[in-house]
Amino acid sequence: MSWKSKALEPNSKSVVTKKWTLLLCIGCFCAGMLFSDRMWAVPEADDKGVSRETGAKEEGLKLITEGCDPMRKDVKREPKDILGEVSKTHHAIQTLDKTISNLEMELAAARAAQESIINGSPISDDLKIPESTGKRKYLMVVGINTAFSSRKRRDSVRATWMPQGKERKNLEEEKGIIMRFVIGHSATSGGILDRAIEAEDRKHGDFLRLEHVEGYLELSAKTKAYFATAAALWDADFYVKVDDDVHVNIATLGATLVRHRSKPRVYIGCMKSGPVLAQKGVRYHEPEYWKFGEEGNKYFRHATGQLYAISKDLASYISINQHVLHKYANEDVSLGSWFIGLDVDHIDDRRLCCGTTDCEWKAQAGNICVASFDWTCSGICKSVERMKEVHRRCGEDKNALWSAAF
Predict the structure, then answer these.
(1) Cα 160 from Cα 401, distance rounded (Å)
(2) Are 229 and 115 in contact (CB under 8 A)?
(3) Contact indicator for 184, 214 with CB cutoff of 8 Å
(4) Which of 27, 199, 220, 279 would bridge 327 by S-S if both were Cys, CB 3.0 to 4.6 A apart?
(5) Which of 81-95, 115-129, 168-182 has the lowest mean pLDDT?
(6) First CA to last CA distance, the chain
(7) Average pLDDT over residues 304-323
């Protein structure tokens, strides 16, 4: 029994071993197949990733070359289209600039009215109707600088080169020309001097009252107030200041200014550069002479004060910055100083300062003067008596103004 059992034992072990061997082989085969599938799947996934990355880069390059907008891949930008866009942008900027300028003028008008109310001063009829601003474009506003004591001078101007009544109204409506005598208030507002001006204004209706106290030493302040007020009330291409003892040909003035209408910032007059007078007690003494260098120096170029004109942009500049613009003793010097450092065209036109002795032969030669006066008097000497004579000799044809096309 023991032998048989010993003899059979090796055989049973052998059988078990073969079965396990077979199972192990099958298991190894399956494991190998599974492992093999996993190994091949990874590179496949990597290939897809690489292909996706490469495709994204190619698409990105394509978008860059086509203008970065996938919705406009087939649109080609022509040079004329680009120029059209630039032109539209430029037009939009100009429109915006004009709108801002108009708003600034309306604001200045509101401030002027507010100051009049606060100070208890009578409000000008022009200030009472600011809504007219912007509805009408005028060629020019002519402000005739005058004083309380100059009633006869004003009458001599009314009798010669300044239209009256319905003609003045027609001048505004048909030609776009506003004309006013410019004056402020006396030191005692509402006094006899102010009442006299108010009575004269009721009769003629040709005054522009300023929020300003009259005085010879305050002419620079009056000049600022005039341009600021005029720019706030009327939208004009030009604003003119002239003295009440100067003869003016309005049609010739309008034709002269029109030639410079395309220039945005223009300053027109008879340009001069006189000496800076340091000596006290003399006429035109400059207390701040030291600012102009050594004694004996001259002023910078500026228009003589009898008549000058500035464009709308410069009048708006004065209106906006009037509180910080420095005033020198002489108003024409002050005006010239305000434009130093700005991009301004200085136009020197000698027809704006003809003498009363040479304006006649110039008119006969067809070269009519814009303004005439005597240098020795800084105006027409004895203008009350001589204004009609100068008008007869040097004035333009009486129909020139109504036949002119500005």
Answers:
(1) 13
(2) no
(3) yes
(4) 220
(5) 115-129
(6) 148
(7) 97
- Which residue do the tokens 């395309």 mark? 262
CB distance 269 to 309 below 8 Å: yes
- The DSSP annotation for 261-306 comes to TT-SSEEEEEEE--B-B-STTSTTB-TTGGGGSSTT-BPPPEEEEE
* DSSP state for residue 72 in the 8-state scheme: G
* Residue showing tokens 């004060």: 305
Which residues touch 285 (CB under 8 Å, ≥6 apart)? 277, 278, 279, 329
User: pLDDT category, 129, cuts 50, 70, 90?
Assistant: very low
Measured CA to CA, the distance from residue 104 to residue 115 in angstroms comes to 16
Tokens of 361: 């032969």
Mean pLDDT of 356-360: 93
**Per-residue pLDDT at 79:** 60
The residues, any chain, with a CB within 8 Å of residue 35's CB and separated by 6 or more, are none
DSSP one-letter code for 351: G
Q: Which residues contact 61 (CB under 8 A, 6 or more apart)?
A: none
**Eight-class DSSP state of 217:** G
Neighbours of 157 (CB within 10 A): 27
Strand order in the sheet with 266-272: 207-213, 177-185, 137-145, 235-243, 302-311, 266-272, 345-348
* pTM, to two decimals: 0.70
Residue type, 43: P
Alpha-carbon span 212 to 94, nearest angstrom: 34
Over its C-alpha atoms, the chain yields an Rg (Å, rounded) of 44
Averaged pLDDT, 379-386: 97
On whether the CB atoms of residues 160 and 388 are closer than 8 A, the answer is yes
Whether the per-residue pLDDT at 111 is higher than 80: the answer is no
345 bridge partner residues: 266
